[in-house]
Structures are given as structure tokens and as C-alpha cells.
Amino acid sequence: MRALLSVSDKTGIVEFAKELKALGYEIISTGGTWRVLKDAGIDVIEISEVTNFPECFNGRVKTLNPYIHGGILFRREKPDHVDEAKKLGIEPIDLVCVNLYPFKETIERTDDFEEIIENIDIGGPTMVRSAAKNFESVIIVTDPNDYENVIDALKNDKNSIEFRRELMIKAFEHTANYDSMIANYMNKRFHEGFGNKQFIVGSKVFNTRYGENPHQKGALYQFEDFYSNLNILKGEPSFNNLTDINSAMKIAVSLGEGSVVIVKHGNPCGAAMKEDLITSWQKALECDPVSAFGGVVAVNGVVDKELAQEMNKIFVEVLIAGKITDEAKEVFANKKRIKLFDLGQARLEISGDLFDFKHVEGGFVYQDADIVKDEEVLNAKQVSNIGVEDKKDLLMAYKIAALTKSNCVTYVKDGALVAIGMGMTSRVDAAICALRKANELGLDVRGSSMASEAFFPFRDSIDAAAKAGVKAVIEPGGSIRDDEVIKAANEHGIALYFTGVRHFLH
Hints:
Layout: E1 2-7, H1 13-22, E2 26-29, H2 31-39, E3 44-46, H3 47-51, H4 66-73, H5 79-88, E4 95-99, H6 103-109, H7 113-118, H8 123-133, E5 139-141, H9 147-155, H10 161-191, E6 203-208, E7 218-222, E8 231-234, H11 239-255, E9 259-264, E10 267-273, H12 277-287, H13 289-292, E11 295-303, H14 305-311, E12 316-324, H15 326-332, E13 339-342, E14 355-360, E15 363-368, H16 374-378, E16 381-382, H17 392-402, E17 409-413, E18 416-421, H18 427-440, E19 449-452, H19 460-468, E20 472-475, H20 482-492, E21 495-498
Parallel strand pairs: 1-2, 1-4, 2-3, 4-5, 11-12, 12-13, 19-20, 20-21
Antiparallel strand pairs: 6-7, 8-13, 9-10, 9-11, 14-15, 16-21, 17-18, 17-19
């Protein structure tokens, strides 16, 4: 039996090779891997002894040879293949262990195109694909985490066709991901990220019990390793939980450490950032306690026992926080339906993806990620006769509006969301519905700051804001009726700011 080992990631390769040798495998290797194994005292054959041809062109060509690929690819169950291999002097290779040149690490480290090109693996993917194609006879190993399982399978008669098939699938995933990364990088470098093909690749974290509805299947995939850092402390996250957690975390991270955000069905129904987390929770809950029941809560900080006791007064379905202390977990222990997650650190973080995409029937639309910047508010143009000194509420209102389904209008007062209208077909309806709900809940919006993620097409929203006692408004501007909107703000003595940036979320 022969095994070919050629890896860029040398993690565990010496121990793996020793185990293979103990099982009677002859080891063939290349370049750096050969040297590592040789230095470890392992009897290893250099690839050129098999190919009868030296590595050449600075290592660009070393495994692209019939003695290698013939040994991997010929079908053992076909007599004509076996006879031809003997005739050509090709010996079988029964196990191939390959992982690829570190292209990802290279592009993260340097912009030197020549070095990047040299870190595009050619022989490696070819060997992986050859071995994967012939998985009925050949074991293909592409992940150091699989070394132990492979040795166990070889030692304990578990080297079944099903075992090799799973390794085959993993191998094709490995090369597909690698090629996708290269293509996406080249399109980013030369086509601003929008080439003729766009590859979106994720690694599965776990299956959800079902998708949006019980008759649908679902799973969570991640681009890098962000969700690997998610600690599942209690309960199982559903498909819908995960999308709500995403919405809540994005807003909470945008608002900053110390904020609390409550989301229901993808939309915020409460948010606050006060002097402490308990007060933030209480103020966030005031905005819409009815919708908050059974909601998803993101706490950008540490949930301690006292905060947990306060939150435990209502039914919260999901709590995600920077960290949830052991004492806080005890408070929630008897709540059967609550689901607890944290990141094991002082505050929440998001991955900060630079792109965004959405499925449409027959394909998907793809775009740069929409990033809301503080400067949009802090440097916004004052277009009314009066302004405001403190823009904290304007900033908070603006961020929540930008991260909420259009059409959206938000009202923030003293660091707390007091009214919100979202997902409406009319912007004036969003403004009026938000104020009506606030009135029903007895919330005082007088002195609040209002934000809209897109321009007001008419002055009616400003008139409604004035009637409610709003003191300041921020919006992108850009309507053909901006003059009417500005005039309305001046008539009512409202500070009005234009950012020049629209933030639709559809």
C-alpha cells in the first residue's frame, strides 16, 4: 500500500505519517512535506523517485505525471486497467493526503501579485480531484482534523465505501471553495468584485430543526468562523431565531456597547442605550412591550444576575449577549422556552461582511454591503433655520432607521426608541402609525428626534412630527419637494438635517 502526502498545512502530518507507516504504508512525499517527514526520521520516498523526473520551474511542476495520476486514477476492479498499469509500470497509490497552497493567507498578507500568483496551487487540486474521482479505491484526505478518523477506519475495518464517499464529497468541496476564492479575488482586483460569475461559499455550522416553516429544511452556514464563536448556552436556535438574532445584533453593535435591542419578526420594537444595562432594558421594553413578548433581545454587554432577574419578568424567546454570567443563567434555568447565546466576551461583535446578497426567483442580486457611518449624521447639512447641539438621539434614530425595513421612520428620545413605523408602503403612514402606537402606549415623544432612511416626498410627515412635538429630524434629502419640507420645518421650529445618503432596506 502506498500513501502520497503533500500538504501546505503541516499540522499533525508527522503523527499521521507514523501511523500510516505502522499500518504498512509506503510514504511518498514532495518538497517541504518530504523534508518535514525526513527530519522526523520517517522513511519517505521523494516524488521524483516515482516520476523519474525532477521537480522543475521552481516547484511549479512536480506531481503532474502519469506515474502519480495513473497510480491514483486506474480502476482496481477493471482487469484492463490493472493490466495496463502493470504494462506501464504504474503502481497504485491508495491514499492521498493533500491540502493546498495558502492562497487565502497570502492575499490577506500581501498585495504583491507575483507572490499571489505563485500561491495558486495546481498540482494539489489535480491530485485531490483525481483521488476523489476514484474514491471507490482511494482514500482522499484534505483536512488535518480527519487524520484521526482515517487511522481509526484503517485500524478497525471501517474503511467502507460510505466512509470514502464522505471524504470524496469533502474533497470536492475543498477544491470548489479554493477555486471560488481565487476567482472572487481576481474579480475583486480587476472587476471591482462584479465578474461574470459570483461565488458565495459557506461552511455548515449546524442544521436547524426546520426552515422558516416546519415543512422546510434549514441550516446555518458561515463564511469564515464567526458563528463558531457562538456559545449555545440553552436551547436550539431555529432558522427564524437566527435571522432575528442577525437583525438585533447589527443594530446593537451599530448603537454601541451598553445598548439593548428587542426584535420581533426581523424588525426592532425596542432599543435603548442608557447609563446602565438594566435601564437600557427597561427603556427598550417601554417602546412596545406587547411586541417584545416572545421577542429576540440583543444585549451589547454582559448580562448579570440583576439584569437577568429584570428580563425574566416577561417571556423572552431568545437572548444574545456579549456574555451571560453563570448567575444569570441560573435565573433563566426554569424558563423552558428561552434560548440563551453569547460570544464569551464583554461585548457583541458582528463579522462586518463587505458584501450583501438576496435570493430572487431564478438567481440572486448581489451588492456591496450598506455601511452606516457616524459621520453621515455628525457632518449632516443643517438645512433649517435652527439646529441642535447634541446629535446623539439623531444618530441613534438614524442608525435604527437605516437597519430597519423600508419605509421606516424612527423617534428617539433621551437615548431610547419611543416610536417606530416600519415596512410601510407610505412614508407618511410609517410616521403616523409610529406616533399612533406611541400615543396608545402613553409614550411622550415630545422633544424626540426623528429619522427617515429615505427622503420625505411631501411635507406631511414634518407636519405630523411637529404636531407630536418632535424637535429635530434627519433624512437624506433629495426630493423634488425638499424646499417644501424645509419650509415646513422652519414654520414649526424643527431642526432639519440632510445626510445626502439613502439607506433603503428591502
